[in-house]
């Protein structure tokens, strides 16, 4: 059997910085746990634009289709903000998601005990928090047609279209219900059925799918109320199922419940490949963080925990994923903090690379 293959796309800004720490973790699992991966690396986003004039070369797209898992850092940055929309770094990432058909984006928000004091919310509201946002990732207003900026009379009009087919809603919903069956058996579906036809259809289809999961308690919420409830009482939720745009916003919101955007991992999953593994891309929820890029300040934990998700969902290594998550938990419990996790002045933060080293040391201690 060949080793499982991983394509690493570090991207821009802090992407390469946090990915360097994941490389250490991959090496550790090879050396100490005998988990060997065939790892290759390529360009995405602004880095790809600089070399190829587009944010994702066709050869890179083909490689991504061919590997067992893609690990991505982050894309984008001010140097690329004024580029034509068709070649913006973010389009490279959207192309990967669309062409790999990664319709189910899992964004878990877990509050580690050591950070419960640090969350933007009171400790009792977030302590023990463990929710899973399932964001539909290949459709909705991100991809609907028509889209563009057009002339209309004597002015221009910018158009994006929210569009969902029943089958697109159904497959995202099934993935949320399947996850809920392995968790606390609750799904809350969020849309705006009060003002959008796509929301009405969303609610209908999710309700229909729920009949196949009688053990799972389904509730519906308007997404604006959902945002409020997420901040008011997040522990009422187990799995939140939502569309592409609402999921983008709600997951950044959930990040702050856990302490920092630098903590939130994600897995984007598609249909099973011939070898039974799902098409998969793993990436932190955060972006390229231009304000701290190049300074060794970025928190690599979101990217490291994304690799833990890869161990669990792509490589069938649930126990090793648990080991990695426990190592992160230990490091935080020991008080190791990157700058984004520091509540008080006068405490010295560790660098990105020191945080990665601390996780490797905790992995060593787990043996
Ligand atoms: N998946 C992705 O690649 C992705 C996601 C979001 C944004 N972006 C892109 O990134 C660029 C910057 O966007 P933005 O500033 O709105 O969002 P961002 O997520 O890059 O940063 C928002 C804030 O969070 C902080 N932050 C983010 N990640 C951190 C980490 N790991 N450690 C410590 N602090 C962290 C940043 O310093 C910044 O203050 C844009 O071009 C945007 O399109 C890319
Ligand atoms: C960079 C951008 C395309 C992306 C999105 O909007 O989906 C990001 O914000 C995310 O959360 O992954
Ligand atoms: Mg986002």
Automatic annotation (TrEMBL):
Keywords, in A-Z order: Amino-acid biosynthesis, Branched-chain amino acid biosynthesis, Cytoplasm, Leucine biosynthesis, Magnesium, Manganese, Metal-binding, NAD, Oxidoreductase
Cofactor remark from the record: Binds 1 Mg(2+) or Mn(2+) ion per subunit.
Keyword field contains Cell cycle: no
Cofactor(s) the record lists: Mg(2+); Mn(2+)
Domain Isopropylmalate dehydrogenase-like: 5-359
InterPro entries (alphabetical): IsoCit/isopropylmalate_DH_CS, IsoPropMal-DH-like_dom, Isopropylmalate_DH
Residue(s) at site: Important for catalysis: 142, 192
GO biological process, one term: L-leucine biosynthetic process
Localization terms from the record: Cytoplasm
Pathway note: Amino-acid biosynthesis; L-leucine biosynthesis; L-leucine from 3-methyl-2-oxobutanoate: step 3/4
Catalytic activities: (2R,3S)-3-isopropylmalate + NAD(+) = 4-methyl-2-oxopentanoate + CO2 + NADH
GO molecular function, one term: NAD binding
Record: residues binding NAD(+): 77-90, 287-299
Amino acids binding substrate: 97, 107, 135, 224
Ubl conjugation listed as a keyword: no
Assigned EC number: 1.1.1.85
Binding annotation for Mg(2+): 224, 248, 252
The organism's place on the tree of life at top rank: Bacteria
Assigned GO CC terms: cytosol
Pfam families, sorted: Iso_dh (PF00180)
Subunit structure: Homodimer.
Function of the molecule: Catalyzes the oxidation of 3-carboxy-2-hydroxy-4-methylpentanoate (3-isopropylmalate) to 3-carboxy-4-methyl-2-oxopentanoate. The product decarboxylates to 4-methyl-2 oxopentanoate.
Entry's family note: Belongs to the isocitrate and isopropylmalate dehydrogenases family. LeuB type 1 subfamily.
Protein's recorded name: 3-isopropylmalate dehydrogenase
Organism placement in taxonomy: Bacteria, Pseudomonadati, Pseudomonadota, Alphaproteobacteria, Rhodobacterales
Encoding gene, per UniProt annotation: leuB
